[in-house]
Amino acid sequence: MPNFCAALNCSRNSTHSVLAFFRFPRDPERCKKWVENCSRSDLKDKTPDHLNKYHRLCARHFEPNLITKTVSCY
């Protein structure tokens, strides 16, 4: 299932983009900042857990120096 960017007026999705998609943080203060920065008033009433589970922001909305690339081992 593709991820869609939650930022206002961004139509990127993971099916048609090579960009990384990031989950909203569960930390309430950081999550609140993400919601403010993506300019979506309809997300303001959502809990951090809901946002983390159902919404993503694509890498376009972050400064490149803020993105750390790590490898996950399963």
UniProtKB/TrEMBL annotation:
InterPro entries: IFN-induced_PKR_regulator, THAP_Znf. Residues 1-74 form the THAP-type domain. Keywords: DNA-binding, Metal-binding, Zinc, Zinc-finger. The keyword Zinc-finger applies. Pfam families: THAP. One of its GO terms (molecular function) is DNA binding. The keyword Chloroplast does not apply. PANTHER family: 52 KDA REPRESSOR OF THE INHIBITOR OF THE PROTEIN KINASE-LIKE PROTEIN-RELATED (PTHR46289), 52 KDA REPRESSOR OF THE INHIBITOR OF THE PROTEIN KINASE-RELATED (PTHR46289:SF13). This is THAP-type domain-containing protein. It comes from Sinocyclocheilus rhinocerous.
